[in-house]
């Protein structure tokens, strides 16, 4: 069964849908903005990492090129005093040219200084124990080696050692050429990147040793990052695929950052640029919060005014319903009045007014269709005596009973009408009925009343009886009038009365 929803229901649904849509669209927009913000940050991190990796590569490469020159010169010119003096001048010039260089050093196969960029040779320094020295002594490869950061014995600064192996003429280990890169040089460069107040960037060896970090923390230079999630993730990647980004929580400060990491192209190091997730989402949160307040206020306003609107609609619907009810009551009262105006109060039959209207209509119809119209005039016999003997109220009751019976026995075709014609007279109008039919109806009624045997001591017949006059007419325009039919039936009734009552007489056709 389909249920019809009210206008207030739909109005409520509409207001709710508008409010929910507003909130829904805002939530969807906020989530989108969040995703976009993260993407932006990832892009920024990747750019910073690329710039850092490029700078580190270039910085080390410059120092390494100087080392390659030195190796070639020493291996070609030998280690005689004049040759070393030239080498020393070249080293001093290169250190002066390359701001990242702290110094250039050449060690013999026992770790003693042969020559350095500063021109001062201290015999007390021996670097045979340094990691890079041991590495070259034990590895015949001629490529560059980037060592773990150390504090320079010469300058006391944190340096990153980049070195190459020197070979003797017979190919055996002949010593090491070393360039020390100023960690502070990298730090100054990293300072220029804006990764937020809680961001962090770092240069890390592929072995997990931290070269440098921003924010700078001297104590952490040279420390191991192997246990960090970030390093383990990086170490799991292979080759060029090592560039990427992911969220990691710092073991150091607990901050969750989006780290973009990238290996150096030529050296076994990688850089990472981490942007704090909280910081990155802080602005988004602030924006979202402000806008959400606006949306909630707007939704509340729409809800509030929507509710008022729905209430108004409800009130209006109620008023309309009341109005409809009042109109229906009025119409029903009108119908009752109309019915009462056309009805006889005592018997419930049509009254004389209705009878006259119906007679006029049916007479016209019969004239048009050349039909027969029959009329029965019924009159209670000795009714005056009945009133006299039993009283007027009893007389009324007899009229009611007789009327009820007549109504029950009268045909109920459209147009048939039983009316209280006047006083104790009852008329029955039967359109399209011939004299036989009308007579039969009258006879049936007469017999039924007689059969009821209602006592009537004032009548010689001893009980209530009826007399009836029946008349029919096939009206012709300009010849007959409606009154003629009634008159004829009245005459027939008079005949019935005069012939002794309790009988039906038919009017003679004229
Ligand atoms: N109780 C009652 N009497 C009515 C009503 N209308 C008319 N009468 C009475 O009916 C009587 C009609 O009497 P008459 O016309 O003289 O005729 P009758 O006594 O019926 O005698 P016949 O018609 O000649 O048999 C009158 O006494 C009226 O007062 C009514 O509504 N109620």
TrEMBL record:
EC category name = transferase
Q: Give the organism the record lists.
A: Duganella radicis
Annotated GGDEF domain ranges read 371-509
This protein is called diguanylate cyclase
Q: Which reaction does it catalyse?
A: 2 GTP = 3',3'-c-di-GMP + 2 diphosphate
Q: What is its EC number?
A: 2.7.7.65
Kindly list the GO CC terms recorded for this protein.
plasma membrane
> What's a GO biological-process term for it?
cell adhesion involved in single-species biofilm formation
Pfam families referenced in this protein's UniProt entry, alphabetically: dCache_1_like, GGDEF
Q: Which domain of life is it from?
A: Bacteria
| Record flagged with keyword Cytoplasm | no
